[in-house]
Amino acid sequence: MARPASPRPERGRSRGFGALLLLAAMAAAAWLAWQHETGRPMRAANAPPLALIVPPGSSVRDIGVQLHGLGLVRHPGVFQALVVVRGDQGRLRAGEYAIPGGIDLGQIEDKLARGDVVRHVVTFPEGTSLEDMSRIVAGQGLAPAAFLAAARDPAPIRDLDPDAPDLEGYVFPDTYDVSRLPGAPAALVARAVRRFREVIGPDLPAIKAGTLTLRQVVTLASLVELETARPEERPRVAAVFRNRLAKRMLLQTDPTVIYALRKAGRYDGNIRKEDLEIDSPYNTYRYAGLPPGPIASPGRASLQAAVHPAAVTDLYFVSRNDGSHEFSRTLAEHQRWVNLYQRNRGAPPPSPSASAGASGAPSPSSVPPR
């Protein structure tokens, strides 16, 4: 009896070749699908940027879910797979990202791995109060309430100023780059206080050896900051206040009245004579000595002027109506300058933000000491 014929080797080889072709086709299809998912932009090049906020501690899946919600990937798992393929686990950085139109998932992953975050610039001008700073941060999309909550906690400065009820005067006026991550307002406050400590650090030995505490120095510097914008005048303005303190004269400076009115919710942009009677410890027309604390954040020059005032005996100054001031040692001399600059007919009114006595009310620049 004849045996059945065995399969031909050619048929086996053809089946194996077909399987290889199938695998190759599947691999090609998978590669094309992968390229389609990761290498093809989901949005047009002219589409506006999308904001992607990656909080600290976010997982790769968390980020994938966000990207899916923004329409930047069809499935969160695709982004997870891309991160694994590239070996970027643990390298994606928290922050705020602007995702422009026309970029693919691979380019998005590159941005996160590089930490190519959006930075917002916040500038606090010299002489800015905490309330004003809160409005500035609000303009950059940060929560003003969170900023003020952090600024009302004196803990970051307590070792230098045990009596501080808040951080008024200690949030240093400068330019800072910030993000919009949760916790950014508090981080900004902490950073600005560290900047204050850096600036004041070299003068701490002189302050400890002097007659004023750090709190009093910063308070004096805040008055100097708000009384003159001229750097060359700051040591002399500081000297006037120091000389008046030494003689137990009222400081009689308008910025303290403005601060008291603002705290009471009564300031409308003008000071009237009746405002000089506001019952506030910040009102230097009624209460002797320095106010109980800073009324704004002074800059470096004003801080240094408060620590190192000019060696003069001046007790008065009056605005020349151009941002500069005339200084006097005696009341008679001072009154002559007042008559020249502020009482002559046709003289332009002084600016309340530039000089003492700008409201026309009594001050070191316009009345005798009490």
Architecture overview:
With 370 residues, this protein is mainly alpha-helical. It folds into three domains: 65 residues, 2-Layer Sandwich (Dna Ligase, domain 1); 82 residues, no CATH class; 132 residues, no CATH class. Helices cover 42% and strands 7% of the residues. It is built from 13 helices and six strands. The strands form three sheets. The chain has a two-stranded antiparallel sheet. A two-stranded antiparallel sheet has the order 3-4. Strands 5-6 form a two-stranded antiparallel ribbon. A hairpin with a 5-residue loop joins strand 5 and strand 6. The longest helix has 30 residues. It is elongated and about 120 Å long. The C terminus is likely disordered.
